[in-house]
Every structure is written in structure tokens, then in C-alpha cells.
């Protein structure tokens, strides 16, 4: 092995020893991606089934049929039967999104061919959930009419799903959060280990080294990437065994984690070389990557949110990581680019900054 | 004690002000999140859908009009081949087709709109399904399908009723009452956690890193040798972080209020201001604790990120905490951001503020707790103040 290679290995070894000697730091590195993944999954828990108070004026077959229609209206309501007073109190305090009141005499009016009026009170503070509820009520009425074979409904939708089954939101978001975890872990570790070379004054000595600063910095990044991969792998295993989402393409999971972490570590390292201070690295990476995560196909294929956001998404490794992970776990294509291209771009994002690291260090 | 505290606070503020990287690091998270929220405001609830028209009768025309007016879609008219390609390339998430025989079918009472859907995930697919149902119901019962809009519930059906037919064949009418008029905009609702995030980055993260930096450089030990009170030292960091965070929050809130994005009910601005200051105190208190319990900057960074992200996301960053499972709600109650977001949302959007006292107490209490813990930790062995050995 030549001197350059030996310098890379020695530097990586030194960094790994440093991680081992600081167990608290290492544990926090392992916890960080897991923490982010679990926390992002919370978003999925409130994305659908709006908590809704149900006030039943009567318990009759048609009233029950309407309640069932509400329940079957595309995962829109988490119906909670309660008294009228309690429902409105909860609504006023922001504990419910809406209150649905089925009036007394509902069954008799429907049976006699007349119309019955249902009261819907909405806490229209969260527009996303408010609109879901408003759209779900007509959907429930359509289901109700269909099940009761009510005449004179002249138009019905005929829904054809492209995929065999919908992927649950927790499963979808949990998987995309593995990519986020890899990006954050890699970016922070890469940025911090490189910036510390300047803070400790080691960078000045590296510049006069015979092989230059390049191999040492690459070695540091390699060690940071190893830690990032281990941390992200733990997260990926939690998704498989904790969330019960089997990997459709296990090798893609491995490749996705490794390539996303490598790209993020390298880009984080680039930031470290440019800033040369550890202090701003973390807020910068966290602050830029959380928004980019929302704009990466983490919630739905990114192109559906418009061309501007779609183009912007390509600036972050999160987009490519999410694309790979959704295919690897859920067998979904959420990007127009094929998986091999996503991996190739991640690899390029890993190699190019690392290759210029030595030159940038001499700035 | 006060001069010491003020000197430390001023030093923290000066260090922050003189470091463009630090200022950027403080502002970028909130700025990035604000931009994302702004972008999502235009996208939320509306999905790109292709419309394939094969029927051109008057009923088809009317249905196309309904679909165009729907606030659930961004509709683009395409040929069948173009629509299939758009669906494949993710330009659209669904294709709605109006068949050739649509007018005749409707006259016979069994018209169908065919909807081909890229059902990639449950939440998003259900959004489309709901919007399609709403548009279809609009044909026979416009009042039922216009919830939340300024419309006449007794409006005639969009497609003329057959002889002997009934208006609203679904037999269910809905009267909607909203807690407020107009709806709160998505931007205003989501800006509240962005303010909490700003407090967390400016107050918690920067203060924690500043304390850890002092320790690692050996400054903390030197300060301890000086005739300065420990309370003054901790109070100084708390004051510096709080001032920085309050200043930044003020710089963000003021234009938002002037632009009308954030609107407080009459007489509520002083309460909102008090909550924002308390949020800055609580977040900085969190930062003081993180900064004092860690010995190395790297550890501070990692603990800080874990704490800040947990605090932001559990506190209601992307969710409404009250809708989470009880166990998670219980955990969320341990983060100061939860109280900040709840207090701000109550003050800005709700008629009553039943939890204001509790929320302010917890936020200010976090600051106080950080003072007590900080003094206690500084009183312990001086070894803790020594810079950690810097490894490779």
C-alpha cells in the first residue's frame, strides 16, 4: 500500500479510536437517526383519521349505516361517540377537529324519502385537516346512498388503483425517515470531524505533511461514514422489526443506506472545510435538511407538489435516499429517475467533494 | 452578580453577532422551514390530475366545469396517451376520464367517471378519493359538496334534474358551523412551530454550544477562578441566549404581523409577546442544561440536535400534539416547545386561553430550573469544568 493509502487508513483508525474513547458521543450518534425516524413517524399518526366527536341523536339502523359510511370514507374520521356538551368542549379546546351530530328522527326521514340534516361543526384552524373533513362528508353521503340503494344518484366514480394496495402512511413515512436519518447522521458527523481539524489546529500541520491534508481528511470522513452507516442500519432494522415493514429488496436497503450516508458525510465534510468551525455545522445541517426532507418525496412523490419544489428537491441527498428506500422497502417508484441513477448520483455526491477536500484545505 | 451576568450575556451576544456563520446557522433552520411551509401552502390539499375528455355533451361540459372549479385538483386536459404518459412519469397522480357515452348514461341514471389513481400511499390516495367523491356529489347535490364555501345549500343541482327527480338524492344535508371565519391559513398555522424552532436554534443550540466551547477552550475554568458568582455566570448565558432568541423572533414576527400572515385577536398581542419571551427563556434554559451536562463540543452537538429535534417534533412541529396517542402526548409534555406551541396557538387562534398560566409557568420554570441546575453543577468538582482531552 502506498503512503497515501496508509495515511487514509491511519487517519480513519485514529478517528474510530476517538469514537470508541468517547462512548457518550458514540451512543448519541447511534441514537440520533433513531430519534429522528421515530419522531418523523409522529407526522404519519396525525395525517389521517381526524379526531371527530360523534353525537348520536338516535341509535337506529340508518343512523348506524351513516356512521359506518363516515368510518369508511377513506380514513377520514376517528369517530369518538360522546355527549353534545363534551364534544363541543373538546372542540373549543382544540382536542377534536370536528363534531358530527346525527339528529333525532334521522332514520324515519330517510325511510320516508325525505332529507335529514346532519350538523357538522369544524375547528377550521388546521386547513389541511379541515379540508379533509369537508371533503369526506360528501364522500360518506355517497357511500351511504350507494349502500342503501337510494334512487336517482346519477353519477358515481369508478376508481381504478394502479397499485395492488395502498402503502400505509406510517410505513411510507417511516421508510423515508430512514433516509433522513442517514442524511443527518452523515452530514453532522462528516462536518464535525473535518471542522475539528481546524479548531484543534491539526489542519496547519496537515498542510505541511508530505501527502497533504487530503488523505487524512478522507480517512476522517471514512470513519465518520462508518459510524453513520451503523447508526442508520439500526434505524433500518427498527423499521423492519419494529414497524413490521419487510424489505422488498434487502440489498437495495444496504446500498441505499451506504450511498446516502457516504454522500451526506462527504457533503458535510465539504461544509466543515468551508466553515472550519464545528459550532455552525449542526444547526446548518439540521436546518437545511429538515425542510429538504419535507421536499424529498417523504410524504408523496415530490413531483406532485409542483415543478419548482421538485427541482429544488434535487439539491439534497434526501431526495435520492428517499427514492431508493421507498423502492427498497415498499417496492414503490416515487421518483421519475430509476433506482440505479439515484444511487449513481449519491455515489457521485460522495466522491466529488471528497476528491477536492485536500485542495480546498489549502485555501 | 448582575454585572457578571450582564458581562457574560454581552459576551455571548457579541460572539454571536460577530460570527456570520453563527448568525446564518441560527437563521437558516427557521428560514428554510418558513420557505418550505410557504411552498407547501400552495400545494397542500391540491394534487395534479389529468382530465381525458371523450364526451362533449352539455352534461359533460358541466362536469368539466365542476372539476375545474374543485379546490382538490390542479387539472390539466390531456389526450388518453398523454395522460397515461403523465401518470407514468409522475406529472399527475390520477387521470379522470369522461367517457363518450357520459351524457346518455347520466340521462339513464348510471353515469360513471373513471378515475385511475397512483395509490402510492394511503394519505395521499385518500385525498384524491375524497376530492373525486366531492366533485361527483357536486353534480347532484351542490349544497352538500360545497362545505366550507360561501354557497347556497339549496342551490339547484349542477346537472338538470330529471322529471319527477329530487334535489339531493343522497338525502343527507349537512349544515356546517365553523369555529372561526375565515379559515386560518395553512401558512399562519404552521408558522407557530417555526417560531419555536427559531427559539430552539437561537436559544438552545447556540447557548449549549457556546458553553461547551468555553469549557473545551478552558475559559470556563478560568472564569471559575475569577471572583464571579456561579449564579451570575449561568444567568449570563441564560440572558444572552434569551436576548438573541427574542431579538430574532421579534424580527420574524414583526413583518409577519404587518403583512397580516399572523393575526392576533384584539388585545392579544401583549400576551403573544409574553409567550414569545417565555419561549426564548425556556429554549435557552434547555440549552444551558445541555451545555453544562456535556463535556465535549461534539457531544454537545449531538445531544443538542437530539434534544432540539425531539423538542420541535414532539412539541407540534409537524403535528397537532393533542391528536397523538396518549403515551406520546405524555412524552411531549416533557418538552418546553410543546407549551410554547400550545400557548401561541391558543393566543392566536382560539377564543379562550385556558392553559396560558400553565404554559407560561412551564416555560419560565425551565429557565429557572436551568439556573438551579447550572449553579449546582458549577459547584461540583472543578474537574467537570476542565476541558476534555481532545482525541484525534
Describe this structure in words.
The complex is a heterodimer of chains A (363) and B (392). Chain A has 2 domains: 9-44 and 166-361, no CATH class; 48-147, 3-Layer(aba) Sandwich (abc type-2 transporter like fold). The model of chain A has no long low-confidence stretch (mean pLDDT 87). Chain A has 14 helices and 5 strands. Chain A has a 4-stranded mixed sheet with strand order 2-1-3-4, sandwiched between helices. In chain A, strand 1 (50-56), helix 3 (61-71) and strand 2 (77-81) form a beta-alpha-beta unit. In chain A, helix 1 (3-21) packs across helix 9, helix 7 (169-199) runs parallel beside helix 10 and helix 10 packs antiparallel against helix 13. Chain A has 363 residues and is of the alpha/beta class. Helices cover 66% and strands 9% of the residues of chain A. Chain B is an alpha/beta fold. Chain B has 2 domains: 2-39 and 183-385, no CATH class; 46-146, abc type-2 transporter like domain (abc type-2 transporter like fold), CATH 3.40.1710. Helices cover 62% and strands 8% of the residues of chain B. Chain B has 14 helices and 5 strands. Chain B has helices spanning 2-18, 20-43, 58-69, 80-88, 102-108, 122-140, 186-216, 219-225, 230-259, 269-293, 297-314, 326-332, 336-349, 356-379, and strands spanning 47-53, 73-77, 94-98, 111-117, 172-178. In chain B, strands 2-1-3-4 form a 4-stranded mixed sheet, sandwiched between helices. The longest helix of chain B is centred in the middle third of the chain and has 31 residues, at 186-216. The mean pLDDT of chain B is 80. Classes of the chains: A alpha/beta (363), B alpha/beta (392). Chains A and B meet through helix 1, helix 2, strand 4, helix 6 and strand 5 of A and helix 2, strand 4, helix 6, strand 5 and helix 7 of B.
Amino acid at each position: 500500500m502506498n503512503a497515501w493509502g496508509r495515511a487514509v487508513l491511519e487517519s480513519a483508525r485514529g478517528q474510530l479510536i476517538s469514537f470508541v474513547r468517547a462512548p457518550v458521543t458514540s451512543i448519541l450518534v447511534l441514537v440520533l437517526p433513531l430519534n429522528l425516524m421515530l419522531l418523523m413517524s409522529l407526522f404519519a399518526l396525525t395525517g389521517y383519521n381526524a379526531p371527530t366527536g360523534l353525537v348520536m341523536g338516535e341509535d337506529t339502523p340508518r343512523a348506524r349505516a351513516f356512521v359506518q359510511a363516515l368510518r369508511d370514507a377513506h380514513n377520514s374520521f376517528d369517530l369518538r361517540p360522546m355527549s353534545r356538551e363534551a364534544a363541543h368542549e373538546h372542540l373549543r379546546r382544540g382536542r377534536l377537529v370536528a363534531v358530527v351530530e346525527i339528529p333525532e328522527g334521522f332514520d324515519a326521514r330517510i325511510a320516508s324519502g325525505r332529507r335529514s340534516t346532519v350538523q357538522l361543526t369544524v375547528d377550521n384552524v388546521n386547513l389541511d385537516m379541515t379540508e379533509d373533513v369537508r371533503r369526506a362528508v360528501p364522500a360518506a353521503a355517497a357511500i351511504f346512498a350507494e349502500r342503501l340503494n337510494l334512487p336517482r344518484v346519477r353519477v358515481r366514480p369508478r376508481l381504478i388503483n394502479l397499485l395492488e394496495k395502498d402503502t400505509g402512511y406510517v410505513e411510507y413515512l417511516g421508510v423515508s425517515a430512514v433516509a433522513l436519518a442517514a442524511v443527518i447522521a452523515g452530514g453532522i458527523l462528516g462536518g464535525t470531524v473535518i471542522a475539528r481539524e481546524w479548531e484543534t489546529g491539526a489542519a496547519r500541520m496537515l498542510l505541511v505533511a508530505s501527502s497533504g491534508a487530503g488523505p487524512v481528511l478522507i480517512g476522517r470522513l471514512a470513519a465518520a461514514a462508518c459510524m453513520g452507516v451503523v447508526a442508520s442500519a439500526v434505524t433500518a432494522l427498527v423499521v423492519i422489526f419494529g414497524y413490521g415493514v419487510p424489505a422488498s429488496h434487502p440489498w437495495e436497503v444496504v446500498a441505499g443506506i451506504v450511498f446516502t450516508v457516504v454522500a451526506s458525510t462527504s457533503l458535510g465534510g465539504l461544509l466543515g472545510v468551508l466553515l472550519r468551525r464545528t459550532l455552525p455545522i449542526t444547526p446548518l445541517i439540521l436546518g437545511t435538511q429538515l425542510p429538504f426532507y419535507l421536499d424529498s418525496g417523504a410524504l408523496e412523490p415530490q413531483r406532485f407538489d409542483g415543478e419548482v419544489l421538485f427541482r429544488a428537491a434535487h439539491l439534497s441527498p434526501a431526495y435520492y435516499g428517499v427514492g431508493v428506500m421507498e423502492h427498497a422497502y415498499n417496492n414503490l417508484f416515487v421518483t421519475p429517475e430509476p433506482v440505479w441513477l439515484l444511487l449513481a448520483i449519491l455515489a457521485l455526491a460522495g466522491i466529488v467533494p471528497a476528491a477536492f477536500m485536500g485542495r480546498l484545505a489549502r485555501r | 452578580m448582575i454585572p457578571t451576568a450582564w458581562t457574560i450575556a454581552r459576551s455571548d451576544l457579541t460572539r454571536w453577532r460577530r460570527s456570520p456563520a453563527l448568525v446564518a446557522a441560527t437563521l437558516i433552520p427557521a428560514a428554510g422551514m418558513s420557505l418550505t411551509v410557504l411552498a407547501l401552502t400552495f400545494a397542500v390539499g391540491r394534487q395534479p390530475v389529468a382530465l381525458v375528455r371523450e364526451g362533449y355533451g352539455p352534461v359533460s361540459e358541466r362536469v368539466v366545469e365542476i372539476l375545474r372549479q374543485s379546490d382538490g385538483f390542479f387539472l390539466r386536459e390531456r389526450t388518453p396517451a398523454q395522460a397515461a404518459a403523465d401518470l407514468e412519469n409522475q406529472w399527475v397522480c390520477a387521470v379522470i376520464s369522461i367517457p363518450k357515452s357520459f351524457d346518455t348514461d347520466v340521462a339513464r341514471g348510471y353515469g360513471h367517471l373513471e378515475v385511475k389513481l397512483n395509490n402510492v400511499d394511503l394519505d395521499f390516495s385518500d385525498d384524491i378519493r375524497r376530492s373525486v367523491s366531492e366533485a361527483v356529489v357536486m353534480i347532484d347535490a351542490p349544497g352538500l359538496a360545497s362545505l366550507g364555501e360561501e354557497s347556497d345549500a339549496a342551490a339547484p343541482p349542477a346537472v338538470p334534474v330529471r322529471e319527477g327527480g329530487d334535489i339531493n338524492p343522497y338525502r343527507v344535508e349537512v349544515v356546517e358551523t365553523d369555529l372561526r371565519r375565515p379559515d386560518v391559513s395553512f401558512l399562519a398555522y404552521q408558522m407557530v412551530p417555526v417560531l419555536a424552532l427559531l427559539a430552539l436554534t437561537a436559544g438552545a443550540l447556540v447557548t449549549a454550544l457556546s458553553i461547551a466551547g468555553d469549557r473545551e477552550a478552558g475559559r470556563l475554568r478560568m472564569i471559575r477562578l475569577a471572583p464571579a458568582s456561579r449564579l451570575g455566570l449561568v444567568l449570563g448565558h441564560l440572558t444572552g441566549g434569551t436576548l438573541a432568541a427574542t431579538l430574532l423572533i421579534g424580527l420574524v414576527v414583526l413583518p409577519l404581523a404587518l403583512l397580516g400572515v399572523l393575526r392576533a385577536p384584539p388585545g392579544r398581542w401583549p400576551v403573544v409577546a409574553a409567550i414569545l419571551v417565555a419561549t426564548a427563556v425556556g429554549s435557552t434554559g434547555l440549552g444551558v442544561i445541555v451545555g453544562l451536562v456535556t463535556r465535549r463540543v461534539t457531544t454537545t452537538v449531538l445531544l443538542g440536535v437530539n434534544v432540539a429535534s425531539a423538542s420541535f417534533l414532539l412539541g407540534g412541529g409537524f403535528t397537532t400534539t393533542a391528536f397523538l396517542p396518549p403515551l406520546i402526548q405524555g412524552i411531549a409534555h416533557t418538552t418546553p416547545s410543546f407549551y410554547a406551541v400550545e400557548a401561541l396557538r391558543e393566543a392566536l387562534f382560539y377564543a379562550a386561553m385556558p392553559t396560558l398560566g400553565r404554559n407560561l409557568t412551564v416555560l419560565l420554570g425551565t429557565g429557572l430550573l436551568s439556573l438551579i441546575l447550572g449553579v449546582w453543577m458549577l459547584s461540583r468538582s472543578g474537574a467537570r469544568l476542565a476541558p476534555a482531552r481532545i482525541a484525534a
